[in-house]
Amino acid sequence: MRVAFAGTPEFAAAALAAILDAGFDVPLVLTQPDRPAGRGMQMIASPVKQLAQARAIPVDQPEKLRSAEQQAALRAAAPDILVVAAYGLLLPQEVLDLPRFGCVNIHASLLPRWRGAAPIHRAIEAGDAETGITIMQMDAGLDTGAMLTKRAIAIADDDTTASLHDKLAALGAEMIVDALHRIALLELAPAPQPEEGATYAAKISKSEAALDFRQDAELLARRLRAFSPFPGCSAKLDEQTIKCWQGLAEEGCGEPGQVLACDDSGVVIACGRGALRLTQLQKPGGKRLPAADFLRGFPIAAGARFALPEA
After folding, report:
1. Are 92 and 53 within one domain?
2. Which of 225, 208, 207, 212 is nearest to 273 (CA)?
3. Same structural domain, 214 and 181
4. pTM (predicted TM-score)
């Protein structure tokens, strides 16, 4: 079976590596165009492109897939199936219809929960007990296609988006290889997604990073994990923006934003309900540090007040 692949970040590269290692014929890889990144804003190839080039797989990087010219490389590759994983481009109907087995997507949630761009972040932020991978047949909707197979994993209490991403990337890579074998044997029957329980995982914006201590401490503790490594949470004290990377919710009472205690075990800040103990922080221009080390270079006294974001 000829398997074309479309994906961009590390999550997708894990799946492509598994497909190649399983011996499938991959005639073409589609990925996003190179983007400027880093301090020097040099053009950087995506992880998927880097892997494809290392394995001598042809790569195409169209800005869109709407026109015949943009679709030419995919049509010439004549794939039996197109596997999509975090590609970042919408596929028009003519592309969805091109391979004889259609297009399948590796989605990092238990559909129909968390359709959309940021399913890993939103599952942690919402306090979900589990998430997983769904291999789905793609249609014109946003993650609305029929499900081919899915598998759940637990979300650990200390999982961040980074750690959960790696677990799901490994699971997705394993599942897509199995799914491709079963698709070739006509062993997978698509099951329509129920609309009941459908939720949307909106893209994470930097504007969400500011901690609002008027909110529940439990929510803020989950948000610390959900927004690590991107965009990272922050709080403002004396006009300085402090990045906040780890913390725990606990009992506490005070005016939201008030520092209730401050010692080597953390900075305890009153919230709308409960208190948030920040245990890993980063000052402007500095490194991530445990609270004890951070406070030696950035003292904070009990009674200090963190600013509240504008409502």
Report:
1. yes
2. 212
3. no
4. 0.95
